[in-house]
């Protein structure tokens, strides 16, 4: 294990893996390379319990951030990063649901796997909503009509959202999509589909009492 700036890392013949961030927060840039080798991976729990990072940049060489925001002792909401920039090379970014202070996500335009609109993370084609920042201050959100799937825990911990309008073409809502959305009182949808007629939001192990509204004036597809 070696140290570079505020990071510990390991290296092999061709690449670098970040093991741990040890700094005090503020603006944090993961290095794009160390000792002339590209930084391609960020390890499990690398940003565990980091509560003072204002802005985190994931550089272009990093391909995977596998559970980098997890807490080694378990439990939710392990990490307090406020803004994240995802570089062009990132292919896999997991457990953003644990970044509980996240306000905005940005993505490099030439990233082939992810994109962002108004701070919200989607896949590249914007057919999957990957993550809505839990500390984003808006009280309502309309999911774009191009979205066909909402990823698991996509809205977990969104404490300001009171109303969500589902897009017309959604076919799949994954597990725990609206888990721990403490202010959410209303979900509006425009197409009658069976997947919307089941409990899709839970808090403290119980289904939330939501006002499920079908917009009958909208076109049914």
Oligomeric state of this protein: single chain
Mean pLDDT: 85
The CATH topology of the largest domain: Leucine-rich repeat, LRR (right-handed beta-alpha superhelix)
The CATH architecture term of the largest domain is Alpha-Beta Horseshoe
In a few lines, what is going on in this structure?
By secondary structure, the chain is mostly beta strands. It has strands at 2-4, 7-11, 16-21, 26-29, 33-34, 37-42, 53-58, 64-65, 83-86, 92-93, 104-107, 114-117, 120-123, 128-131, 140-142, 149-150, 163-165, 172-173, 186-189, 202-203, 206-207, 211-214.
Characterization of the model:
There is one protein chain. The chain is an all-beta fold. The protein folds into two domains: 1-127, Alpha-Beta Horseshoe (Leucine-rich repeat, LRR (right-handed beta-alpha superhelix)); 137-221. It is 0% helix and 35% strand. It has no helices and 22 strands. Strands 1, 2, 3, 5, 6, 8 and 10 form a seven-stranded mixed β-sheet that branches. Strands 12-13-14-16-18 form a five-stranded mixed β-sheet, with no helix packed on it. It is elongated and about 55 Å long. Residues 205-209 and 214-221 have low confidence and may be disordered.
Question: What's the topology here?
Answer:
Layout lengths: L1 E3 L2 E5 L4 E6 L4 E4 L3 E2 L2 E6 L10 E6 L5 E2 L17 E4 L5 E2 L10 E4 L6 E4 L2 E4 L4 E4 L8 E3 L6 E2 L12 E3 L6 E2 L12 E4 L12 E2 L2 E2 L3 E4 L7
Parallel strand pairs: 3-6, 4-7, 6-8, 7-9, 8-10, 9-11, 14-16, 15-17, 16-18, 17-19, 19-22
Antiparallel strand pairs: 1-2, 2-3, 5-6, 12-13, 13-14, 20-21
